[in-house]
Amino acid sequence: MKVAIMGAGLSGLACAITLEKQGVVPTIFEKRSKVGDRFVNGEAFLPALNRPIKDCYAYLAEKHGIYLQPLNNIRKMIISSENDRAVLHGQLGFLNIRGRDEDSLEFQLYKQVKSEIIFNSQYTYENLLQNFTHVIVATGDAAYTAKIQDFTQDLTVTLKGATVEGTFDKRHVGIWLDNTIAPQGYAYLLPFSEKEATIALGYPDYPHNQKFDIKSLWNKFYHRVCKEIEQELRITDQFEVTRYIIGICSAPRLANTFFTGNCFGAIMPAYGFGQLAAILTGIYAAQDLCGLGNYFELTKPLRQSYKNSLALRRAVEQLDNHKLDLLVKLINTNLANSLITTPNLNLLGFLGFVLRPYLLKRV
Ligand SMILES: Cc1cc2nc3c(=O)[nH]c(=O)nc-3n(C[C@H](O)[C@H](O)[C@H](O)COP(=O)(O)OP(=O)(O)OC[C@H]3O[C@@H](n4cnc5c(N)ncnc54)[C@H](O)[C@@H]3O)c2cc1C
């Protein structure tokens, strides 16, 4: 068996590590000149959306022998709407860093890989199929999958973010649900040290959202964050992602080609969490290749989570700012607080079931 992996990101590297454990040495082809050679940004794992997995770091280590470390635990989350605010406390999740940083998640995976990585690769999957028995498409780019097979694109998103310098509590994150700064989307602050954080906003590119000017939304958001945390944040780096595709492929495997990570449909529609599903799809593709499972079956729960997450997004997208205020008020009650923080409740499954009529709603 000769396996080529296209893309040395989360799913490609997780796939390589799992193959190596079974004695299969893949060749990895990476478009960029280094692993993680892109903007630095803080990202998060929220266990409430990944249950029954409670602690993804422990799960990946114990179940799959993949060792990663978070930057920090999330102990406090402040969710703000236009006029209200909810505060959640507890073990709410984990923060990590991505991109050009020695501690980034992709860099941590890279250190566990022994296989050869061919950088600056220009190969297409068709090229690779001529010399390899199997190809793993792990390019992080769902548009690439859409060129090869049916891919249901549910939405695309515009994202704008920045690295800011200030003084932060490394365990506290902020989320804003406010249509005047992120119409039908959300904005966030994720610290990656006591002095640096990512602030970002994202909203769907629906035709009726085209009237918004990203620069003025950004200015509003930036000033609001500065005002709320009472600091003049200094922007040291910026990024913008346009038409980020959220959708899911119809066939996780087509003959001897496997689609992993975003190329499978790892990004959860509510609200862009894709890291855990990306790593898991890489592991599952490797398990299928090594006769330890069936990729189609193994990815079924991820497909269901995608659907549940889409129902949640569609429901929240209907809410105007007044209703978002009410939602935030509700989140601030003890009952909602404990539903979110109770580790044994499959929150996404429950919400997906309750909100499934919204799957039919087009926004
Ligand atoms: C701004 C932003 C914020 C996010 N925040 C979060 C968050 O907080 N929590 C969360 O869980 N998820 C988050 N996500 C989603 C998450 O980052 C992705 O779902 C995840 O990284 C996808 O992993 P992947 O393996 O598919 O792709 P990636 O990890 O992106 O890796 C793809 C690799 O393939 C390479 N490549 C591309 N094209 C080719 C080619 N033709 N040939 C060879 N190599 C190629 C790329 O250079 C890259 O190295 C966020 C995404 C963005 C954009």
UniProtKB/TrEMBL annotation:
Looking at the Swiss-Prot or TrEMBL record, what is one Pfam family this protein matches?
NAD_binding_8
Q: SUPFAM superfamilies under this entry?
A: FAD/NAD(P)-binding domain (SSF51905)
Annotated signal sequence is none
**Name this protein carries in UniProt:** Flavin-dependent dehydrogenase
Species name:
Desulfosporosinus acidiphilus (strain DSM 22704 / JCM 16185 / SJ4)
